[in-house]
Amino acid sequence: MPSYATLAYDWCKVRLGVPCITAAQHAAMRAxxxxxxxxxxxxxxxxxxxxxxxxLQAGARCxxxxxxxxxxxxxxxxxxxxxxxxxxxxPPEAVTAFLARPAVRAALGVAxxxxxxxxxxxxxxxxxxxxxxxxVNATVARLLEGGLRVWVYxxxxxxxxxxxxxxxxxxxxQWPGAAGFAAAPDTEFVVDGRWAGRExxxxxxxxxxxxxxxxxxxxxxxxVALQIIEHFMDGASLSP
Length: 240
Description:
Strand content: 5-15%
Number of helices: 11
Helix content: 40-55%
Largest sheet: 4 strands, mixed
Order of helices and strands: HHHEEHHHHEHHEEEHH
Structural class: alpha+beta
Distance between the termini: 33 Å
Strand order of the largest sheet: 3-6-5-4
Number of strands: 6
Organism: Strigomonas culicis
GO molecular function: serine-type carboxypeptidase activity
Radius of gyration: 19 Å
Shape: globular
Protein name: Cathepsin A (Carboxypeptidase C)
Number of domains: 2
């Protein structure tokens, strides 16, 4: 969670030349952080039932922490973009049309009576009310320990799923290769003759920072997204 304050102030200065929030707002964010983190810890207390009230409190307390950026006019999915409060991250119409095709629904195994695909659902969101702040550390560690390849990527203009936090999370993840991953170098890679991002790999864990892309990397940097997928499928490094 500390990454949201870092990104809103320090990283915005790096990428945009100016911070996305004021120094006073940055200080206020950092002051709100402790309550947010305490609620998250309570939500993940193994002695408590899965659906415990601290998970709902985490939502409320962390929303206050995040609100300093979210109340600006900047998009939560791309710090370069503006946001007017409508349809966050709504997909292109072509995506909706594609997923409505009978052949696509059949290929995906969608039940005949299922409603059309939608970008969001308040009903589904309510059912995940207790899940939003649950940790997946143990799950990811088991995947790595089982020998499965895990790749995590993030566009470096995204705020909500920001690269600073994703990288910090992986550096702190406890698994047999933790020390090696923490010490591994970041190496730049090229796509179509241009520097496209940085990759850090150790064993079967890879993190990719995609330059000049927001939350929707395939939309903002389609050639880079394709190369990430192809190299993941092939088990190959992006770097030379």
